[in-house]
Amino acid sequence: QKFAPEIKAVIADGTQNERAKIIQNAGNADVIITSYPLLRRDVERYAKLPFLTLILDEAQFFKNYTTQTAQVVKTLHARYRFALTGTPVENRLEELWSIYDAVFPALFGDRKAFQDLPKETVVRRVRPFLLRRLKSDVLKELPEKIETVQSSGLLIEQKKLYTAYLAKLRQETLKHLAQDGFQKSRIRILAGITRLRQICCHPALFVEGYEGSSAKFEQLLETIEECRLAGRRMLVFSQFTGMLNLIAGELGYRGIPFFYLDGQTPASERVELCERFNEGEREVFLISLKAGGTGLNLTGADTVILYDLWWNPAVEQQATDRAHRIGQKKVVQVIRLVARDTIEDKMVALQQKKKDLIEELVQPGGELLPSWTEA
Length: 375
What we know:
By secondary structure, the chain is an alpha/beta fold. It is about 45% helix and about 15% strand. The chain contains 15 helices and ten strands. Helix 1 (about 15-25) links the parallel strand 1 (about 10) and strand 2. The termini are far apart. Mean pLDDT is about 90; it is low at about 365-375.
């Protein structure tokens, strides 16, 4: 409507019958807009249509080649194909193959052929078919984003719990590795690591009857008070809804009004909550990292607090981009809370490795990359 009013676009949503009618009459429109979940449901209808151009936004949604979404987008017929994403690689190089297999399958061939390629060959092949634009390139008016890490040592009671659970986890892990091997033990090990991370956030997340506090929790409350006094407005992200509930309870006790959004919040309500926050109704917005990490416009905030870390830095990046986007007039401050001398230190190091991988892959221009080592 704004940039190309002459183009007739239709949104293929609604009930199954309504969508079927829209797709059936596709010839009357220039552009059909749909979502990945609806595309999966209607794929048989779309697969019969010849399109001139296919634009796959948020291409990280099919970075895993085994998912239904990845398989469905490859059944569509189009002469030209584009994938758009801010995070072409989130965890491993294989994700790049999955995206290119949907838009330009001839570039790498099958997955086995891709895996056999040296990484510098992958970079060389990708270069001519990857256009990268930084926010600073295209949004000259966008204010700065300042990122800081605030680390805190565990409280005494919290540290006792962490040390005891870590010792127990090590003992159990060695036993399971000896019995079942690494592959069969992975889920159990990951569950144990999640428990360690929950102790870092707040032991009350899984220790029944825990009446103490948490270093990060205390630090968060101090940060919220400081930001309120400075007139700043905050988004607080956590991947644990239990943690968000603990924060919500304390904010309610202190008489600090807030908005709350997690995976259970209906889509219609999400838009309304965002609008009310952006209009200045309340100073704090508590958001589940996975539910609110994409698709929300929250430029009414100028401070983003990441209460707990995620394995994938791209997910955190998407969360901070809720505030640092077109329409933002203020400098955005991003604060990561980290529990010192814990599993979270290792997560910070892992995140940096992944950031380096992404940067080396998609860096604009420059000399060819040196060969990578296994480390």
